[in-house]
Amino acid sequence: MKISVNWLKEYIPVTHTVDEMANKISLTGIESAPVHNGEGLDKLVVGHITSIKPHPDSDHLNITTVDVGEDEDKQIVCGAPNVANDQYVIVALHGAHLPEGKRIKRGKIRGEESDGMICGLDEIGVPVKYVPEAYHNGIYVFPEAVTPGTDALTALGLDDDMVDMDITPNRADTLGMRGAAWEIGATYDEKPSFTDAKIDESKVKENSDLTIEVENKELVPDFMVRVLKNVTVGESPLWMQRRLWNQNIQPVNNVIDAANYTMIEYGQPIQAYDLDKLENDSITVMNAHSGDKFTVDDGTNKVLNNNDLIVKSGDEILGLAGVAGGINARVTAETKNVVLESAVFDGAVVRKAAQRHDLRGDASNRFEKGVDNGAVSDALLRATQLVDENTNADEISQEIVGSYTEAKPTVIQGKISHINHLMGLELSSDEILNILDRLGFETKLDGDDLTVTVPTRRWDMSIEADVVEEVIRIYGYENLKGTLPAGMETAGGYSPKREFSNRLRNILLGQGMDEVINFALMNKQEAADFNVINTNYTKLLHPMTEDHEVLRTSLIPGLINNVAYNQARNNNDISIFEQARIFDRKDGVDRPKEVEYIAGAVSGNIAMDSWNTTAKAVDFYNVKAIVEELLSFANLDADFDYVATDKISNLHPGQTAEIIADGQAVGFIGKLHPDYQKEHSINDTFVFELNVDTLFGMEKRNVQAQTAPKYPSVSRDLAILVGKDIESGTLVKDIFANGGKYLSEVNIFDVYQGKNIKSNHKSLGYHLEFLNPEATLTDDQVEKAFDIIKDSLVQKFNVEIR
Amino acid sequence: MSLNDKLKDLRANGIDEAKRAERIQELNDLRVNLLGKKGPITKALRGMKDVPAEERPEIGTLANNVKQDIQSAIEEKMEELNRKIVAQKLEEETIDVTLPAQPSKYGTRHILNQTIEDIEEFFIGLGYRVDAGNEVEEDHYNFERLNIPQNHPARDMQDTFYLTDELLMRTQTSAQEGRDMESHDFSKGPLKVISPGVVYRRDDDDATHSHQFHQIEGLVVDKNVSMADLKGTLEALCRHVFGAEREIRFRPSYFPFTEPSVEVDVSCFNCGGKGCRICKYTGWIEVLGAGLSHPNVLEMSGIDSTVYSGFAFGLGPERFAMLKYGVNDIRDFYLNDVRFLEQFKGVN
Ligand SMILES: [Zn+2]
Fold first, then answer.
1. Cβ A673 vs Cβ A652: under 8 Å
2. For the segment A681-692, what is each residue's pLDDT rounded down to a tens digit?
3. Which terminus of chain A is more solvent-facing, meaning fewer CB atoms within 10 Å of its CB: N or C?
């Protein structure tokens, strides 16, 4: 809420600029910003129209003479339809600055001299929606005489300095000027003084015919009304109007304005009804029936449900409680008798109703955050006073109560030592009591025991921690010296699993891959594209868009999007990875398991065309090398097999392998299917994905150091011809199985298929290393082992030794 | 010509020829020709028998000197030629060092993860555990246990993606507080933990909002934890992240799960507090929210709030990175354009 300094001065002395105040209030209580109204506007004065005649050359312009407090009246041509003699109006003099850089200059309008401009409120910066309806299409006319030449901005309150307080939901006590005065007063050590509301007791009549029934007193703990009879509805006094439009409230009439003014003053919303438009002599507060139709006072139609609280008379819905008045019983120029309502409605009910019907406003904002139930009756009295002063009623009723809950101050017990201890300060009890006194809290001290009695206007206070906050913020956080927790030493660190995944990440970074972060929520198609683990989808109940609807089952779709995004921007050579979670939901379970995965995608060239090199496009084996290095650094006591598979849709059936660790599937590696690549407009791309949780769960290698061998190794080359479908991995396994204990390495150095080779066959060349760490190997030993290897290959795989 | 003179002639010619040689081979030939068994010196010494006996030692010495002098002339020249050959080789091998190298690339860690890891390591140094928690969480831990019951207005601040009535995508890493507190054995010392991770909000993605973003929650619970401890801890953090000269300030705020609650500002690292565009001319930049653990939150985890107290804070790595590196659009973090990613090579 914006706090007008002029208004605030009625309660506390103000000696600081709004800039200083906003800063100080931000640091001790509520985030605030200074507001300088009327900045950049000048030469705007009040003028009195002393004559008017039609422009000879126009059917809508008038020529006026206006007293602007100078020796001579000014002649001003005015086109507003509502201009008339003897009006007090806003005059922009020659040279005046108006909003948006507009400048007024004397000149001639259709041949007639015009020395200035008569303005509407919207022309000097008041948004149209806050301008009284009567002045929407014309000039503004002051409701009372104002000395000509008076600064118009001052007369209209439009140069008011204000502090805009942006409250947190717990500090709705400052959504009224009085509460704000308490808060700002405590900041500056000034106790506010208020004048009590008072009505003309001579007008008060004991009896009223109106009866009130509140059906659910839990949701409506307070509900009371007063009736004012034979009022004269009209325009409010200027002082009231200007405070309203400065609060972004449109002045309507002197009843509704008084109700709104009371809300700003007390923080308590007041609703006004036309008594004569009630269906009968009763008002009932109750839940709506589902399907009830309600027309808001602005004419919009709503269909209610049974969670909506309504104020009713007979079958007529007067208002949606705490949210909006209805069109039926609204106070208009013709209204004679008025009902003013002051109440407390359940915050959650109001909040939901306001949300549901898209009717959030000043009243609902206050009810949902809470109002002072100790001020409901006072606010009603004040509203009654203001309406009476504005409308001169004949008769005022007593308070008619539908429900009432006694407001009790909150009593909080605490200890001076504990309060100090939580703050990390050593304030004396006097200092603490003084701060609480500034806030208007009563205190009692018994040794270390502190009793704080909090008035009902601070309903946010309930426990000792709240007292701690009040003391430390008023004392000033800037006076608090930082320390570090002094407790027992603790050993910090990552979890072992996180350390493991960090290591895997570092390997991929070392392989030149950039790390990416993608969204876990994806569209249905993406979630299905690589659901290799064949899990159930986890879907949002209410997604915002189809793009983010299902939790991912694989990291690959995100990486594909990244490749596509980059290649569309001509970043063609891409090597990226992501380490994050996928969501694996088992049958019949709502909650998915969150499983850590690591995945990569490589596309384009791994070596560039340059002055001394030629480009090399990535292939399956480049990516396999990355995965192998990654797995070797996983430090697992397992053998990894790459098993060809054509079962993963969207991957190339002839260039994909499942990765099996001691019989357990841990991931896959493969080339994207050409159709899938085309669909996503990307070049040849190879991907891999590994389940980090599974790898982490496996047995680690137990490393026992061995001295590097001192004896030389002996090598043999093996060239064979074999059926083309026999996988090299199978042959290597067989070579190791038969090579004896000295066979240390088998490396393939040649694969050839084609010319000079039997059809359906391929030629393979292997380099075998034999090593005995204990002694020099003899040719005999090596030859023997080599023969066994060859015999086995011939027998099992029908190879031809070449 | 006396033998003596003959030898001297041979020396003069030999040295002369050595000096004139242009190739190693010439020198090798010269050595064999002059100093070999069939060479002129050996031949000349055959005339020794005609020399009187008393002069023979003198001639012998001269002959040896002549051999040595020629030898050294050859060696000297040999060295000179070798030096020339090396120099020529070096000249031939000279390259243009300004030509580009073949890249030997190390990958770049995502800037958000660099930011997170930097903060994690800072807190690990202060004895904090890192506990990432779950991204799918129960309403109970995400809200109820943080003193945010059904219908609490604070639920308006964060619109939530629900999976079922009970399950949701966590809206804050504070959701881990309840789990950390209830599982901690206080007989083994204080609870000091940070929870980094991904959180989700029902927001439209734009330059400043993302439906998925990161948070780091910090929590300390012990017998003597105070607001002053919170201030000191965050002061140290902000100096670590934003520079040793930084100051912080607390402003009162409201979070349902802390009381007192504060917003924390750090003095502007760009202008040092004088005021600039980054700090909106205030000299301060809001960087995180914090407070003392609300007694209800402690009690709900079975911790006696009259004996124990705690502090908690939450910060946004996106915000930190945006501030520190001048990133203007949060979506850049999730588009993963490699040109964007790679500019953060080695910053942390
Ligand atoms: Zn700055």
1. yes
2. 999 999 999 999
3. C
Task: Say yes or no to pLDDT of A336 above 70.
Answer: yes
**A265, pLDDT greater than 80:** yes
Q: Average pLDDT of chain B?
A: 92
Average pLDDT on A780-796 reads 94
Domain coverage including residue B215: 111-342
- Which residue of chain A has the CA closest to B103? A607
Chain A residue numbers with beta carbons less than 8 Å from the beta carbon of B189 are 487-490
Please give the distance, rounded to the nearest whole angstrom, from the Cα atom of residue B275 to the centre of ligand 1.
Answer: 4
* DSSP string of A736-792, one letter each residue: HHHS-TTEEEEEEEEEE-STTS-TTEEEEEEEEEE--TTSPPPHHHHHHHHHHHHHH
Distance between B140 CA and the closest CA of chain A, angstroms: 14
- Helical (H) or strand (E) element with A519: none
The band of B6, judged by pLDDT with boundaries at 50, 70 and 90, is: confident
**Are the CB atoms for A544 and B204 separated by under 8 Å?**
yes
Residue with tokens 């791309």: A685
State whether B108 and A514 contact (CB < 8 Å): yes
Give mean pLDDT, residues A55-71.
Answer: 94
The answer to whether residues B282 and B207 belong to one domain is: yes
Alpha-carbon distance of A327 to A300, in angstroms, equals 9
Decide if A613 touches B, using CB distance below 8 A.
Answer: yes
Structural domains of chain A ordered from first start: 2-37+161-187 (3.30.56.10), 42-156 (2.40.50.140), 201-403 (3.50.40.10), 410-475 (3.30.56.10), 496-696 (3.30.930.10), 714-801 (3.30.70.380)
- Boundary-marking domain end, from B46, B67, B93: B93
Are B283 and B165 contained in the same domain? Answer: yes
- CB A801, CB A720: distance < 8 Å: yes
Measured distance CA(A347)–CA(A209) in Å, rounded: 30
Please indicate, yes or no, whether residues B130 and B230 belong to a single structural domain of this protein. Answer: yes
Radius of gyration of chain A (CA): 42
Q: pLDDT at position A169, please?
A: 87
What's the domain count of chain B? 2
The pLDDT value recorded for residue B157 is 54
Question: What pairs with residue A320 in β-bridges?
Answer: A310, A324
Average pLDDT, chain A: 95
Q: Are residues B166 and B50 in the same domain?
A: no
- Tokens 């088992």 label which residue? A586
User: Please, are residues A66 and A115 in contact by the beta-carbon 8 Å criterion?
Assistant: no
Token output for A34:
């200074």
Hey, is A521 helix, strand or coil? strand
Any B CB within 8 A of A517 CB: yes
For residues B5, B7, B10, B15, the Cα torsion angle rounded to the nearest 10 degrees is: -110
Q: What is the pTM of this model?
A: 0.89
Tell me the CA–centroid distance for residue B262 and ligand 1, in Å.
21
Stretch (H or E) spanning B40: helix B40-45
Q: Which of residues 94-153 of B touch A (CB under 8 A)?
A: 99-100, 102-110, 112-113, 120, 123-132, 134-136, 151, 153
Confidence of residue A707 (pLDDT cuts 50, 70, 90): confident
The position carrying tokens 């109970």 is B140
In this predicted structure, what is the pLDDT of residue B154? 66
Across the interface, do A482 and B102 touch by the CB < 8 Å criterion? no
Residues B41 and B130 in one domain: no
Q: Report the residue from A495, A498, A569 with minimal CB separation from B337.
A: A569
What is the distance in A from the centroid of ligand 1 to the CA of B171?
30
Cβ pair B136:A594 closer than 8 A: yes
Q: Specify whether B165 is located in the same domain as B309.
A: yes
Boundary (domain end) residue, out of B93, B127, B160: B93
Considering the domain architecture, whether residues B183 and B291 belong to the same structural domain is answered as: yes
Report the distance separating Cα A89 and Cα A145, nearest Å: 10
B176 within 8 A of B133, measured Cβ to Cβ:
yes
